[in-house]
C-alpha cells in the first residue's frame, strides 16, 4: 500500500472507482481521525466523507480497528521499515549510523501526520491496546532488533567495546527518542522545539559513543 | 497529608468522624479509582463506599479532578519529594548517588499503588491533561532539576567531566527510567520483570558514568 493524496484519488470510470475505493476511504479516514481522534470519529462519518454507504466501508475494512491498522501501516510501519532497511545496510562507521538514525527518527517525529498519530496512539493506548501492540510489533521491536544487529557488527569491526549486550545497548540508545516523542503528549517534560530536540539528540549520540568506545 | 489505610480510619465520636472524613474519602477513592480507572469511577460511587451523600464528598473535594489531585499528591508527589530531598542532600560520590537514585525509582515504579497510578495517568493523559500536568510539575520537573544540581556539584568536585549541560545530563539520565515505567502501559517494549529492569538500570548507570567520566 502507498500513501496517496486526495488529488490522486479521482477515478473516472466505474471500474477505476471501485479499485480506488480503499484508498479513498483511507484518505478520508486519515483526515477524520487526525482531526477527531480514533475514539470520537465514526465509521459513518468516514462513509459520508467518501460519499458511500457504511456497508461499503465495511466491505473493505471489516472494523474500525482494521481501518486504523491500515492507516498505521501506511503512515508509521512503512516509514519505520525503511529506517530498519537503512540501518541493516549501513556499512559503518557506527558513529555515522547513530547520527543518521537520529536524523531519520527526527524526520518521523517532526512530520505532522506521524506526530499526530504518535499523539493519538498514546492518548488512546489505554482504551485501544491493539494500537499500542501494533506500534510495538511493527515499529519498535523491529527497530530495536536492527539497532542491536548494527551494534553487534560494530563490536566485531572493533568500533565499539566488545562484551556488552547489544539488545540492552539498543534499548538504551532508543530511550531518549521515546522520551522526545512522548513530549508531544505532555506526559514527559515537553520538548516540542525541533532545535532543542536536535541539541538533545546530538548530546545523547555523543554520550552513547563515549560510553561504548573501545 | 499522610497515606492511611482503611483500618486506621475507624473514628468513633461524631467530632472524630468529621475530622476523619477527608481521609475516608481518599481511601475509598484510591481503591475505587485503582480498580475502575479515573474516567469510569463516579463520585457517587465514592460517596456510597464511604457511606455519605455525594454533596458531602463535594464539600471536601469540589470536583473529581481535585480528588484525583489529592490522591496523586499523597501517592506520587510526596514520595517523589522524598527522593528529591535525598538527591539534594547526597554528599557524593556521584556513582553512589546515581545507583541509589536508580534503586529509589525502582521502589516507586514497582510499588503496586504507584505503578497502578502511573498506568492510569498514562492511560488517561489524553483525556485529562491536568493529570499529566500535575505529574510533570510535581514529580518530573523537580526530579530533573535536583539531578541537574547533583551533576553540577559532581563536576565541581571533579567526579564528572566539566563543561556538559547538567540539565541535558539529567534528562538523558532519566530517559531509561521513563521507558521502564511506560513499559507497564504497553506503548514501549514492556519490561515488567523487576530483575530484568534491575539489570537494565545497572547497565544504564554504568554507561552513564563512563560517558561522563572526567
UniProtKB/TrEMBL annotation, chains A, B:
PROSITE patterns attached here? HTH_TETR_2
Supply the InterPro entries for this chain.
Homeodomain-like_sf, HTH-type_TetR-like_transc_reg, HTH_TetR, Tet_transcr_reg_TetR-rel_C_sf, TetR_C
May I ask which residue range the UniProt record assigns to the signal sequence? none
| UniProt keyword list | DNA-binding, Transcription, Transcription regulation
GO molecular function terms listed in the Swiss-Prot or TrEMBL record: DNA-binding transcription factor activity; transcription cis-regulatory region binding
Q: Give the SUPFAM superfamilies listed for this entry.
A: Homeodomain-like (SSF46689), Tetracyclin repressor-like, C-terminal domain (SSF48498)
UniProt keyword DNA-binding, yes or no: yes
The domain of life is: Bacteria
**Segments forming domain HTH tetR-type:** 19-79
Q: Which residues bind DNA?
A: 42-61
| Protein name in the entry | HTH tetR-type domain-containing protein
Amino acid at each position: 500500500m502507498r500513501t496517496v493524496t486526495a488529488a490522486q484519488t479521482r477515478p473516472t470510470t466505474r471500474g477505476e472507482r471501485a479499485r480506488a475505493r480503499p484508498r479513498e476511504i483511507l484518505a478520508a479516514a486519515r483526515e477524520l481521525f487526525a482531526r477527531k481522534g480514533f475514539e470520537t470519529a465514526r465509521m459513518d462519518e468516514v462513509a459520508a466523507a467518501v460519499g458511500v454507504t457504511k456497508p461499503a466501508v465495511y466491505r473493505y475494512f471489516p472494523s474500525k480497528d482494521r481501518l486504523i491498522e491500515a492507516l498505521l501501516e501506511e503512515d508509521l510501519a512503512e516509514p519505520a521499515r525503511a529506517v530498519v532497511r537503512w540501518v541493516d545496510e549501513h556499512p559503518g562507521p557506527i558513529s555515522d549510523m547513530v547520527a543518521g538514525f537520529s536524523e531519520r527518527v527526527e524526520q518521523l517525529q517532526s512530520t505532522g501526520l506521524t506526530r499526530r498519530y504518535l499523539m493519538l496512539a498514546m492518548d488512546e493506548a489505554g482504551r485501544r491496546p491493539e494500537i499500542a501492540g501494533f506500534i510495538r510489533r511493527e515499529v519498535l521491536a523491529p527497530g530495536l532488533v536492527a539497532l542491536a544487529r548494527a551494534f553487534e557488527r560494530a563490536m566485531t569491526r572493533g568500533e565499539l567495546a566488545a562484551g556488552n549486550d547489544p539488545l540492552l545497548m539498543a534499548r538504551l540508545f532508543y530511550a531518549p527518542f521515546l522520551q522526545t516523542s512522548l513530549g508531544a503528549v505532555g506526559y514527559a517534560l515537553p520538548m516540542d522545539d525541533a532545535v532543542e530536540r536536535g541539541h538533545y539528540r546530538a548530546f545523547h549520540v555523543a554520550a552513547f559513543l563515549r560510553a561504548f568506545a573501545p
